[in-house]
């Protein structure tokens, strides 16, 4: 054990285990988490080659092998609780998305939320047993999101054939054919090819495809269909299915994100997910109780991503803080030993806010999950009243937490200097695997605008005298103040006072956005143009701080004081996240702090070190010996060598 890190732990002023229990929810939950962890980390079937030294195809193959083992073991150990599955999976594939993510995270949950009992028997049971492997295909090459109501090509009441259509307006279509009781699915244009779904490229044999439903000559907007895409025995693509991998990406190397072109693919009537919307055998369309229920799986994953932001931050600051405790640089005072870099105020100012955010997001993630479970329980009982708030909260928190975490991971990487740039630190991987959360499941700006939409509606209800409940109740309680009213009183030591200032700022920003829309409406006369011209204010309204210059200075001074208070407990606070070394997979973030010897050991495994003279270098050796000069270069430009 590195002596610096030992001293850090001796100096801590609280019981780390108790804090771990609080983070987990209870001592029993900590025990069970560790039990699952050891099932995976001590299982030889999950041993792997360091993916840093593998090609993409090798990484995919290794991940598929581990995922298959994972499904067998989950069954063997009878693990079926979604939280436990999620935890087990995260130990099997630490930090890395894998080919079955979409199957587990979106295919199964969409069936649970939108399938009829008969469809559950036909699809969910075989999917649970991994006979059916599914993905969720919404995004297309030309469109990541849909606004059917604004499009000439589709609305619940417009006929299918409209004069003003251009081919680029077309999206994947599912047209009901009553003669055969089938839907005929087509991707009419290049831009309508499904693009991005995880596991689609090679792994899945089924996809939930989001397509426009056409029946009896009318288009009814976006609906979900279960489409078999590969033969269940041979895994070969079925007729009419053009499918494959979209190629290498920034990260996600283990995942076969794919494309899917549908060419007159026929599926039975009862392959449309019909828990809510229905098509009768004669083609009659039965509306769902709420059109928004189609978006349910996205709300589930967005809620989950809030917790993933916390985990990415916990990992990043564990690595950076432990490393900063063992790394020494630059004499502070001449003649004295070099200090731990964690003693530099600037280093603390980089890392301690990340640490605090990791804790805050952990609790926000738990709150988001409880809210999701509560409101989705109501929805299953037929009460849809909480859906707008759940959507606004999950969309806004997904965007806010992923943006914040995305920036903070990079702060942690840079705070480790050069070694942070090495893949041995794990920080580059954490970044590339995390950063697409800002884009997928709804691009963050678009999500903030969804939250703003809800805030503005709530604002106008509050101004109309309604007493609002839940997360927007502050809009009823607080009267937005004009700038001339000055800044509110603030006690920076008092959490309640800080919350009040945040709420006031939020109310002011919502009012600012509403005023902007009103002004733009007078200028532009169209609600949509006024909305777009106020979009910057709207995004700010979803991301609410209202301080005077002296108050801001007071906050700065207080932050410096807090850095000093936090310093003795920094290592213990990251230890409390209880991230096992094998899961963390970082040379810099090792629990024992023995960084340098392991860094050296890790580098020696680089494939480039497999031979002292890599084969490609023989050409240089030959050139050096002047044997090729005559044939490679004209005499007049021949290289001068000393040999
Ligand atoms: C037993 C089960 C076992 C489970 C085990 C689980 C264990 C877990 C194991 C593993 C997990 C692995 C982790 C998984 C990793 C996942 C990787 C993810 C990979 C990525 C996937 C994707 O990206 S899928 C594609 C996602 N795409 C999007 O998100 C597109 C975003 N676009 C949209 O959401 C909509 O198009 C948009 C809302 C932007 C616009 O739609 P439009 O209809 O035009 O909207 P608008 O007119 O603005 O609003 C209409 C109306 O509807 C309301 N609304 C919009 N969205 C929602 C919603 N989601 N919910 C509720 N309501 C919504 C909106 O507010 C408007 O309301 P009103 O104002 O009119 O009242
Ligand atoms: C790693 C990864 C995995 C994915 N997995 C899946 C999957 O499994 N299944 C699936 O269906 N999809 C998947 N996706 C696709 C993902 O859901 C989309 O990329 C995402 O929804 C964003 O859509 P887009 O790419 O069309 O971006 P665009 O909407 O084209 O965004 C581009 C820019 O335009 C801006 N913009 C767009 N609309 C507006 C607006 N109304 N107002 C203001 N600004 C706007 C955005 O803010 C952004 O800056 C995945 C993507 C990635 C990167």
UniProtKB/TrEMBL annotation:
Pathway: Lipid metabolism; peroxisomal fatty acid beta-oxidation. Pfam families: ACOX, ACOX_C_alpha1, Acyl-CoA_ox_N. Its main location: other. It catalyses: octanoyl-CoA + O2 = (2E)-octenoyl-CoA + H2O2; (5Z,8Z,11Z,14Z,17Z)-eicosapentaenoyl-CoA + O2 = (2E,5Z,8Z,11Z,14Z,17Z)-eicosahexaenoyl-CoA + H2O2; decanoyl-CoA + O2 = (2E)-decenoyl-CoA + H2O2; dodecanoyl-CoA + O2 = (2E)-dodecenoyl-CoA + H2O2. Its cofactor is FAD. Residues 494-544, 545-617 form the Acyl-CoA oxidase C-terminal domain. The active site is at 441 (proton acceptor). Keywords: FAD, Fatty acid metabolism, Flavoprotein, Lipid metabolism, Oxidoreductase, Peroxisome. FAD binds at residues 139, 198. Residues 15-133 form the Acyl-coenzyme A oxidase N-terminal domain. One of its GO terms (cellular component) is peroxisome. It is found in: Peroxisome. GO terms for biological process: fatty acid beta-oxidation using acyl-CoA oxidase; lipid homeostasis; very long-chain fatty acid metabolic process. Belongs to the acyl-CoA oxidase family. This is Acyl-coenzyme A oxidase. The lineage of its organism: Eukaryota, Metazoa, Chordata, Craniata, Vertebrata.
């Amino acid at each position: 054990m590195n002596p610096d890190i030992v001293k850090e732990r001796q100096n801590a002023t609280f019981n780390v285990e108790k804090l771990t229990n609080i983070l987990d929810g209870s001592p029993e939950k900590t025990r069970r988490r560790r039990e699952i962890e050891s099932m995976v980390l001590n299982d030889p079937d999950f041993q792997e080659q360091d993916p840093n030294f593998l090609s993409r195809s090798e990484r995919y193959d290794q991940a598929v092998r581990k995922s298959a083992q994972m499904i067998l073991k989950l069954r063997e150990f009878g693990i079926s609780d979604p939280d436990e599955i999620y935890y087990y999976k995260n130990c099997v594939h630490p930090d890395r998305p894998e080919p079955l993510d979409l199957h587990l995270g979106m295919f199964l949950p969409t069936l649970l939320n939108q399938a009829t009992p008969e469809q559950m028997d036909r699809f969910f049971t075989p999917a649970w047993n991994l006979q059916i492997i599914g993905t969720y295909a919404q995004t297309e090459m030309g469109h990541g999101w849909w606004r059917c109501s604004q499009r000439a090509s589709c609305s619940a009441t417009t006929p299918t054939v409209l004069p003003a259509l251009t081919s680029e307006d077309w999206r994947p279509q599912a047209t009901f054919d009553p003669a055969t009781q089938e839907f005929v699915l087509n991707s009419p244009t290049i831009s309508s090819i499904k693009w991005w779904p995880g596991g689609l490229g090679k792994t899945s044999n089924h996809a939930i495809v989001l397509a426009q439903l056409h029946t009896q000559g009318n288009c009814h907007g976006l609906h979900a269909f279960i489409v078999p895409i590969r033969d269940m025995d041979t895994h070969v693509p079925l007729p009419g299915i053009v499918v494959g991998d979209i190629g290498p990406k920034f990260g996600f190397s283990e995942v076969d994100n794919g494309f899917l072109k549908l060419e007159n693919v026929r599926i039975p009537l009862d392959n449309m997910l019909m828990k809510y919307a229905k098509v009768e055998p004669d083609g009659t369309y039965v509306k769902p109780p709420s059109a928004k229920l189609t978006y349910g799986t996205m709300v589930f994953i967005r809620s989950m991503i809030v917790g993933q932001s916390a985990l990415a931050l916990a990992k990043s600051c564990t690595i950076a803080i432990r490393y900063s405790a063992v790394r020494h640089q630059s004499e502070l005072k001449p003649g004295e030993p070099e200090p731990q870099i964690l003693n530099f105020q600037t280093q603390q100012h980089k890392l301690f806010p990340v640490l605090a955010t990791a804790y805050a997001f952990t609790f926000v993630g738990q709150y988001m999950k409880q809210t999701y479970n509560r409101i989705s329980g109501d929805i299953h009982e037929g009460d849809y009243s909480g859906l707008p708030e759940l959507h606004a909260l999950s969309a806004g928190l997904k965007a806010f937490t992923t943006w914040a975490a995305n920036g903070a991971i990079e702060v942690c990487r840079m705070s480790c200097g050069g070694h942070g740039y090495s893949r041995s630190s794990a920080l580059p991987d954490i970044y590339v695997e995390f950063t697409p959360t800002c884009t997928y499941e709804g691009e963050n700006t678009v999500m903030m605008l969804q939250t703003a939409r809800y805030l503005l509606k709530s604002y106008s209800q509050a101004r109309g005298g309604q007493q609002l409940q839940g997360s927007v109740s502050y809009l009823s309680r607080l009267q937005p103040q004009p700038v001339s009213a000055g800044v509110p009183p603030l006690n920076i030591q008092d959490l309640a006072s800080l919350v009040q200032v945040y709420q006031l700022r939020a109310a002011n920003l919502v009012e600012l956005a509403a005023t902007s829309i009103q002004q733009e409406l007078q200028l532009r006369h169209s609600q949509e143009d006024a909305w777009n011209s106020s979009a910057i204010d709207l995004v700010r309204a979803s991301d609410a701080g209202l301080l005077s210059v002296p108050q801001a200075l007071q906050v700065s001074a207080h932050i410096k004081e807090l850095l000093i208070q936090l310093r003795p407990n920094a290592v213990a606070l990251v230890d409390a996240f209880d991230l096992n070394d094998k899961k963390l997979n970082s040379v810099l973030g090792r629990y024992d702090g023995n960084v340098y010897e392991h860094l050296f050991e890790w580098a020696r495994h680089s494939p480039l070190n497999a031979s002292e003279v890599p084969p490609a270098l023989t050409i240089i050796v030959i050139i050096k010996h002047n044997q090729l000069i005559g044939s490679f270069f004209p005499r007049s430009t021949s290289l001068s060598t000393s040999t």
